[in-house]
Protein backbone atom coordinates (compact mmCIF):
# COMPACT_ATOMS: atom_id res chain seq x y z
CA UNK A 1 0.00 0.00 0.00
CA UNK A 2 1.15 3.52 -0.79
CA UNK A 3 0.10 6.27 1.57
CA UNK A 4 0.54 10.03 1.16
CA UNK A 5 0.08 12.08 4.33
CA UNK A 6 -0.31 15.83 4.01
CA UNK A 7 1.83 15.97 0.86
CA UNK A 8 2.29 19.42 -0.65
CA UNK A 9 4.48 20.71 -3.46
CA UNK A 10 5.28 24.39 -3.97
CA UNK A 11 7.67 26.30 -6.20
CA UNK A 12 9.15 29.71 -5.51
CA UNK A 13 9.28 32.36 -8.21
CA UNK A 14 8.09 35.93 -8.32
CA UNK A 15 5.42 34.51 -6.06
CA UNK A 16 4.93 31.16 -4.42
CA UNK A 17 2.89 28.66 -6.45
CA UNK A 18 1.20 25.75 -4.70
CA UNK A 19 1.08 22.82 -7.11
CA UNK A 20 -0.13 20.12 -4.69
CA UNK A 21 -1.97 21.00 -1.51
CA UNK A 22 -2.06 18.77 1.54
CA UNK A 23 -2.75 15.51 -0.30
CA UNK A 24 -3.96 12.62 1.86
CA UNK A 25 -4.24 9.44 -0.16
CA UNK A 26 -4.13 5.66 0.22
CA UNK A 27 -3.57 3.40 -2.77
CA UNK A 28 -4.31 -0.24 -1.99
CA UNK A 29 -2.57 -3.29 -3.43
CA UNK A 30 -3.69 -4.83 -6.75
CA UNK A 31 -6.05 -2.02 -7.71
CA UNK A 32 -6.28 0.21 -10.76
CA UNK A 33 -6.46 3.92 -9.92
CA UNK A 34 -7.11 6.54 -12.58
CA UNK A 35 -6.20 10.13 -11.78
CA UNK A 36 -7.94 12.74 -13.91
CA UNK A 37 -8.57 16.47 -13.91
CA UNK A 38 -8.08 19.64 -15.96
CA UNK A 39 -4.75 20.52 -17.55
CA UNK A 40 -2.41 22.07 -15.00
CA UNK A 41 -4.29 20.60 -12.04
CA UNK A 42 -1.29 18.72 -10.63
CA UNK A 43 -1.77 15.23 -12.10
CA UNK A 44 1.74 14.75 -13.48
CA UNK A 45 3.25 16.42 -10.41
CA UNK A 46 1.51 13.85 -8.23
CA UNK A 47 2.86 11.02 -10.40
CA UNK A 48 6.41 12.41 -10.14
CA UNK A 49 6.06 12.72 -6.36
CA UNK A 50 5.06 9.05 -6.12
CA UNK A 51 8.06 7.98 -8.21
CA UNK A 52 10.55 10.25 -6.46
CA UNK A 53 11.31 12.37 -9.51
CA UNK A 54 10.12 15.36 -7.49
CA UNK A 55 10.37 15.76 -3.72
CA UNK A 56 7.42 17.12 -1.70
CA UNK A 57 7.73 20.45 0.05
CA UNK A 58 5.99 18.95 3.07
CA UNK A 59 4.26 15.77 4.16
CA UNK A 60 5.33 12.13 4.10
CA UNK A 61 5.05 9.11 1.81
CA UNK A 62 4.89 5.52 3.06
CA UNK A 63 5.19 2.40 0.90
CA UNK A 64 4.20 -0.85 2.60
CA UNK A 65 4.83 0.86 5.93
CA UNK A 66 8.30 2.17 5.00
CA UNK A 67 8.95 5.91 4.88
CA UNK A 68 10.17 6.68 1.36
CA UNK A 69 9.63 10.45 1.47
CA UNK A 70 13.27 11.31 0.82
CA UNK A 71 14.18 8.31 -1.34
CA UNK A 72 15.19 9.07 -4.93
CA UNK A 73 13.88 7.43 -8.09
CA UNK A 74 16.51 4.65 -8.04
CA UNK A 75 15.81 3.68 -4.45
CA UNK A 76 12.08 3.54 -5.12
CA UNK A 77 12.66 1.46 -8.24
CA UNK A 78 14.52 -1.10 -6.08
CA UNK A 79 11.41 -1.28 -3.87
CA UNK A 80 9.27 -2.19 -6.87
CA UNK A 81 7.85 1.15 -8.02
CA UNK A 82 8.00 1.88 -11.76
CA UNK A 83 7.16 4.87 -13.92
CA UNK A 84 6.17 5.21 -17.58
CA UNK A 85 6.78 8.70 -18.94
CA UNK A 86 4.28 10.71 -20.95
CA UNK A 87 7.03 11.05 -23.56
CA UNK A 88 9.30 7.97 -23.20
CA UNK A 89 13.04 8.54 -23.70
CA UNK A 90 14.71 7.33 -26.89
CA UNK A 91 18.20 5.84 -27.01
CA UNK A 92 20.17 5.96 -30.23
CA UNK A 93 22.36 2.88 -30.68
CA UNK A 94 20.51 0.76 -28.10
CA UNK A 95 18.36 -2.09 -29.35
CA UNK A 96 14.86 -2.95 -28.15
CA UNK A 97 16.26 -6.35 -27.18
CA UNK A 98 18.87 -4.73 -24.89
CA UNK A 99 16.37 -2.44 -23.16
CA UNK A 100 14.05 -5.36 -22.37
CA UNK A 101 16.93 -7.53 -21.14
CA UNK A 102 17.97 -4.74 -18.76
CA UNK A 103 14.43 -4.61 -17.39
CA UNK A 104 14.38 -8.34 -16.66
CA UNK A 105 16.07 -9.96 -13.69
CA UNK A 106 16.58 -13.60 -14.67
CA UNK A 107 15.28 -16.60 -16.59
CA UNK A 108 15.13 -17.39 -20.29
CA UNK A 109 15.29 -13.79 -21.43
CA UNK A 110 14.99 -14.36 -25.17
CA UNK A 111 11.75 -16.32 -24.87
CA UNK A 112 10.35 -13.92 -22.28
CA UNK A 113 11.22 -10.91 -24.44
CA UNK A 114 9.19 -12.34 -27.30
CA UNK A 115 6.25 -12.90 -24.96
CA UNK A 116 6.51 -9.34 -23.63
CA UNK A 117 6.47 -7.79 -27.10
CA UNK A 118 3.56 -10.01 -28.14
CA UNK A 119 1.72 -8.90 -25.01
CA UNK A 120 1.82 -5.28 -26.14
CA UNK A 121 0.92 -6.08 -29.73
CA UNK A 122 4.37 -6.06 -31.36
CA UNK A 123 6.05 -8.76 -33.43
CA UNK A 124 9.38 -9.72 -31.87
CA UNK A 125 10.98 -10.52 -35.24
CA UNK A 126 10.29 -6.97 -36.43
CA UNK A 127 11.34 -5.13 -33.28
CA UNK A 128 14.05 -6.95 -31.32
CA UNK A 129 16.92 -5.52 -33.35
CA UNK A 130 15.52 -2.06 -33.95
CA UNK A 131 17.11 0.94 -32.24
CA UNK A 132 15.20 2.76 -29.50
CA UNK A 133 15.38 5.98 -31.49
CA UNK A 134 13.28 8.34 -33.60
CA UNK A 135 12.58 5.59 -36.16
CA UNK A 136 9.93 4.25 -33.75
CA UNK A 137 6.51 5.90 -33.74
CA UNK A 138 4.93 7.31 -30.60
CA UNK A 139 2.69 4.25 -30.27
CA UNK A 140 5.60 1.84 -30.75
CA UNK A 141 7.82 3.50 -28.16
CA UNK A 142 4.93 3.63 -25.68
CA UNK A 143 4.21 -0.06 -26.07
CA UNK A 144 7.89 -0.99 -25.70
CA UNK A 145 8.07 1.07 -22.51
CA UNK A 146 5.02 -0.75 -21.16
CA UNK A 147 6.75 -4.04 -22.02
CA UNK A 148 9.68 -2.97 -19.81
CA UNK A 149 7.22 -2.28 -17.00
CA UNK A 150 5.67 -5.73 -17.42
CA UNK A 151 9.14 -7.30 -17.43
CA UNK A 152 9.91 -6.00 -13.96
CA UNK A 153 6.93 -7.54 -12.12
CA UNK A 154 6.46 -4.34 -10.13
CA UNK A 155 4.53 -3.76 -6.93
CA UNK A 156 3.32 -0.38 -8.26
CA UNK A 157 3.37 1.01 -11.80
CA UNK A 158 2.62 4.66 -12.57
CA UNK A 159 1.66 5.67 -16.12
CA UNK A 160 1.63 9.38 -17.00
CA UNK A 161 -0.92 9.94 -19.80
CA UNK A 162 0.02 6.76 -21.70
CA UNK A 163 -2.43 7.60 -24.50
CA UNK A 164 -0.61 10.81 -25.47
CA UNK A 165 0.69 10.84 -29.04
CA UNK A 166 -0.42 7.35 -30.08
CA UNK A 167 -2.72 6.16 -32.86
CA UNK A 168 -6.18 4.68 -32.32
CA UNK A 169 -5.10 1.04 -32.80
CA UNK A 170 -2.24 1.47 -30.32
CA UNK A 171 -4.62 3.11 -27.85
CA UNK A 172 -7.08 0.22 -28.06
CA UNK A 173 -4.26 -2.28 -27.53
CA UNK A 174 -2.99 -0.15 -24.64
CA UNK A 175 -6.32 -0.40 -22.81
CA UNK A 176 -6.32 -4.18 -23.31
CA UNK A 177 -2.77 -4.37 -21.95
CA UNK A 178 -3.74 -2.55 -18.76
CA UNK A 179 -6.67 -4.91 -18.29
CA UNK A 180 -4.46 -7.97 -18.79
CA UNK A 181 -1.79 -6.57 -16.48
CA UNK A 182 -4.42 -6.08 -13.78
CA UNK A 183 -5.76 -9.63 -14.19
CA UNK A 184 -2.40 -11.44 -14.37
CA UNK A 185 -0.21 -9.56 -11.87
CA UNK A 186 -0.39 -8.22 -8.33
CA UNK A 187 0.74 -4.77 -9.43
CA UNK A 188 -1.07 -1.66 -8.23
CA UNK A 189 -1.63 0.43 -11.37
CA UNK A 190 -1.89 4.22 -11.30
CA UNK A 191 -2.83 5.88 -14.59
CA UNK A 192 -2.93 9.62 -15.27
CA UNK A 193 -5.50 10.00 -18.05
CA UNK A 194 -8.39 11.93 -19.59
CA UNK A 195 -9.57 9.06 -21.77
CA UNK A 196 -12.92 7.47 -20.99
CA UNK A 197 -11.78 3.99 -22.02
CA UNK A 198 -8.89 4.17 -19.56
CA UNK A 199 -11.04 5.65 -16.79
CA UNK A 200 -13.58 2.85 -17.20
CA UNK A 201 -10.90 0.29 -16.29
CA UNK A 202 -10.26 1.88 -12.90
CA UNK A 203 -11.44 0.49 -9.59
CA UNK A 204 -11.48 4.10 -8.43
CA UNK A 205 -11.15 7.44 -10.20
CA UNK A 206 -9.39 10.19 -8.28
CA UNK A 207 -10.30 13.71 -9.34
CA UNK A 208 -7.66 16.42 -8.96
CA UNK A 209 -8.19 20.15 -9.48
CA UNK A 210 -6.07 23.06 -8.28
CA UNK A 211 -3.70 20.66 -6.56
CA UNK A 212 -6.31 18.99 -4.36
CA UNK A 213 -7.88 15.55 -4.67
CA UNK A 214 -11.60 14.91 -4.43
CA UNK A 215 -12.76 11.34 -3.76
CA UNK A 216 -16.14 9.67 -3.41
CA UNK A 217 -17.67 11.23 -6.53
CA UNK A 218 -19.45 8.35 -8.29
CA UNK A 219 -17.48 6.89 -11.19
CA UNK A 220 -20.43 7.21 -13.56
CA UNK A 221 -20.64 10.92 -12.73
CA UNK A 222 -16.98 11.54 -13.61
CA UNK A 223 -17.41 9.61 -16.86
CA UNK A 224 -20.17 11.95 -18.01
CA UNK A 225 -19.19 13.95 -21.09
CA UNK A 226 -17.75 17.33 -20.18
CA UNK A 227 -17.47 16.64 -16.44
CA UNK A 228 -13.70 17.19 -16.19
CA UNK A 229 -13.68 20.11 -18.62
CA UNK A 230 -16.31 21.91 -16.52
CA UNK A 231 -14.52 21.56 -13.20
CA UNK A 232 -14.46 24.71 -11.15
CA UNK A 233 -11.00 26.28 -10.88
CA UNK A 234 -11.96 29.12 -8.56
CA UNK A 235 -9.63 30.88 -6.15
CA UNK A 236 -11.31 29.05 -3.27
CA UNK A 237 -9.98 25.81 -4.73
CA UNK A 238 -13.28 23.97 -4.45
CA UNK A 239 -12.24 21.73 -7.35
CA UNK A 240 -15.85 20.66 -7.92
CA UNK A 241 -18.36 20.82 -10.75
CA UNK A 242 -22.03 21.72 -11.06
CA UNK A 243 -24.55 22.61 -8.37
CA UNK A 244 -24.41 19.15 -6.78
CA UNK A 245 -20.72 19.40 -5.93
CA UNK A 246 -19.55 23.00 -6.21
CA UNK A 247 -19.46 25.83 -3.72
CA UNK A 248 -19.11 28.12 -6.73
CA UNK A 249 -18.55 28.03 -10.46
CA UNK A 250 -15.40 29.89 -11.47
Q: What is the CATH topology?
A: Rossmann fold
| 3D shape | globular
- By DSSP (H or I, 4+ residues per run), the number of helices equals 10
- Under the CATH scheme, which class? Alpha Beta
CATH superfamily: P-loop containing nucleotide triphosphate hydrolases
Please name the CATH architecture.
3-Layer(aba) Sandwich
Number of strands: 12
Strand content: 25-35%
Helix content: 25-40%
- Whole-number average pLDDT? 83
Strands in their spatial order, largest beta sheet: 6-9-10-3-11-12
* Major sheet details: 6 strands, mixed
Radius of gyration: 19 Å
Question: What is the ordering of alpha helices and beta strands?
Answer: EEEHEEHEEHHHEHEHEHEEHH
* Contiguous uncertain segments of 5+ residues: 233-237, 239-250
- Alpha-carbon distance between the termini? 36 Å
Class per helix and strand makeup: alpha/beta
| Domain count | 1
Topology:
Blueprint: E1 2-11, E2 17-27, E3 32-36, H1 43-51, E4 58-63, E5 66-67, H2 73-78, E6 81-84, E7 91-95, H3 96-103, H4 109-119, H5 124-127, E8 131-132, H6 138-151, E9 156-160, H7 168-184, E10 188-192, H8 196-201, E11 204-209, E12 212-214, H9 219-222, H10 242-245
Parallel strand pairs: 3-10, 3-11, 6-9, 9-10
Antiparallel strand pairs: 1-2, 1-4, 4-5, 7-8, 11-12
Helix pairs in contact: 3-6, 4-6, 6-7
Amino acid sequence: MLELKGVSLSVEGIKKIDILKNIDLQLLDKKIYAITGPNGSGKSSLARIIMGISQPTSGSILFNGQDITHMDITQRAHLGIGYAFQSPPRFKGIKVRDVLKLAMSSGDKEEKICDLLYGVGLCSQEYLDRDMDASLSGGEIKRIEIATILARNLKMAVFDEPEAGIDLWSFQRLAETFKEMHEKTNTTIVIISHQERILELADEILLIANGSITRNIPKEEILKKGFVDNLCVCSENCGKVGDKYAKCIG
